[in-house]
Amino acid sequence: MIEGFLRGGSPRVYARLWLPDLSPRSAEVEFVVDTGAAVTVIQLGVLAELGVRADDLRQLPVERNIAMSGIVIHALARGAIEFVSEDDNPLRLRLQMRLALEPPSETGAAPSVLGMNLLSNFRVVVSVPEGLVALESP
Q1: Cα(130)–Cα(138) distance, rounded to whole angstroms?
Q2: pTM higher than 0.70, yes or no?
């Protein structure tokens, strides 16, 4: 089981992220667990932390998606997300990542999101009264 937490009423988890085609570095990322999102999206602040530059993103294929805010364009890149379970065993999942190409709002502050393309590997448990967030193996 991967334990998460609530922040501002949103379920969240920490995970380590790699984008091997763009950076040799990894970063610990706070993700919102969003069962209403189809895809996992990495925001610009995380890309900067990995040392990924705008020029690096221009070489990647892009995809248009419909979001709550309208149509968004993401760059596509191969990546991996690693969670650490409560018994300290790492679980690494490889998937195609959607990388934000612009800030999602005027403030530029938005969390990276775990969408159903990744969450479908888990049973997602959220209990606001108990302050419980967990990703469990099915």
Answers
A1: 21
A2: yes
